[in-house]
Amino acid sequence: MGFGLLSLSIWLPIAVGAVLLAIGRDDNASTTRWLALLGSLLSFVVTIPLITGFDTGSAALQFAENMLWIERFNVRYHLGVDGISVWFVLLTAFITVIVVIAAWEVITERVAQYLGAFLILSGLMVGVFCAADGLLFYVFFEATLIPMYIIIGVWGGPRRVYAAFKFFLYTLAGSLLMLVALTYLYYKSGGSFDIATWHKLPLPLHAQALLFFAFFAAFSVKVPMWPVHTWLPDAHVEAPTGGSVVLAAIMLKLGAYGFLRFSMPIAPDASREYAWFIIALSLIAVVYIGLVALVQQDMKKLVAYSSIAHMGFVTLGFFIFNELGVSGGLVQMISHGFVSGAMFLAIGVLYDRVHSREIASYGGVVNTMPKFAAFALFFTMANCGLPGTGGFVGEWMVILGTVSTSFWLAAIAATALIFGAAYSLWMYKRVYFGDVTNHHVRELSDLNAREFGIMAVLAIATLWMGVYPKPFTDVMHVSVTRLLEHVAVSKLQ
């Protein structure tokens, strides 16, 4: 098939981003902003038919595009989405629109480069979720590092160069073993990079084990799982607000998605054999990282650690191998995109006014910013997993799925709800409640129309997921069922 919706979803934002980079001057920043907004909106609009036209009764790749790319090595430009990946294409495009609007008055230097980097990053991340060819996946997966590295390194905080290098080296080093695994699978399959072909390979357990840990090296860093999580708090603290939003809402999902697309279907026996290892690391993330978040004094660092704990729920759900767990993990990934993005945007609103992320710099914000405080409370509650919000549905599904495997594992996982409430509400109390004791807080102005609009849209999305998650679970149901059926069948000869 030729150029279709998926290619448009990938290359339209990249093309607009390239045009913005070519403009590259701040003397026409207004034109740059409007062009970036138009490009991001069009990129989001072209993803909508992927959901409206999606066949929920099929587990096959839909909207597929398949043509030869590198003839000598039989590398194909093969794209497609299923129930597992399609929502992430929309989420990526949606968050990009939010980031462009959020930067409207905040970024005043190198505006074209900033917005261009985000649009290019958006297209590359969509490419990761659409790629059905192993090498194409790897190219998109690694290429996402470049714009994010630049975003952190150029527009970040005082230690931005350190944070950017740490982010780049951690994630690149983890991916090198994945490249070795892809090369092995290429030769083992007779010269094919087709991921679906790799799913059918009859591999012995020792080969599966090596592949499993090679993929684990790449995807665990990206999630990130404990103990390879240390790059994330630094990256979040130093990144500009838009960088933190995209990092939390989308980029962490690339690693979790990789487990479903590569680790589990290609090495199902090894996945079941070493599931205890992933479950153990996930529970450590839920409990230990939750306790670490409690003692943070920097708001961004606290939310960064909470993201690690929430992603621990995702990997736990995947490796208990039942539909509630896997679907719950996917729902958690989507809702975390809305909630964590909103949390970082809320911190950005305060930072733009006071230029401090320290909790001690605030207090009594509700007295001067009542509208903003109401939104912040809603998202804080969602971050805790309050019923009726998107933050609750995924976590509850994972806990229910885990109960069917082990009550005690579910009990440990459920402590995340307690720790989440503790660190989220304690931060909210110290920042928003109490008397105004700081002259900076006394002079704060409430949300403007642009900020109010962003918060309202994210609140609606979070509430929608919490009240009516059926559209999300219906789309992923058949694909998740097929994946679990595949994993349940041994490949051992």
Fold blueprint:
Blueprint: H1 5-23, H2 29-45, H3 48-52, E1 62-70, E2 75-81, H4 86-102, H5 111-130, H6 134-143, H7 145-155, H8 160-188, H9 195-199, H10 205-222, H11 231-238, H12 241-266, H13 268-273, H14 275-294, H15 299-318, H16 323-354, H17 365-368, H18 370-384, H19 390-403, H20 407-432, H21 439-442, H22 449-467, H23 470-488
Antiparallel strand pairs: 1-2
Helix pairs in contact: 1-2, 1-5, 2-4, 2-5, 4-5, 4-12, 4-16, 5-6, 5-7, 5-12, 6-8, 7-8, 8-10, 8-11, 10-12, 11-15, 12-15, 12-16, 14-15, 14-20, 15-16, 15-19, 15-20, 16-18, 16-19, 16-22, 16-23, 18-20, 18-22, 19-20, 19-22
Please provide the ordered H/E string of secondary-structure elements: HHHEEHHHHHHHHHHHHHHHHHHHH
Radius of gyration: 22 Å
Q: Roughly what percent helix?
A: over 70%
The coarse overall form would be: globular
Instruction: Compute the average pLDDT.
Output: 87
Strand content: under 5%
Neighbour order of strands in the largest sheet: 1-2
Distance between the termini: 36 Å
Structural class: mainly alpha
Largest sheet: 2 strands, antiparallel
Q: Give the count of helical stretches.
A: 23
Poorly predicted spans:
none
Question: In total, how many beta strands?
Answer: 2
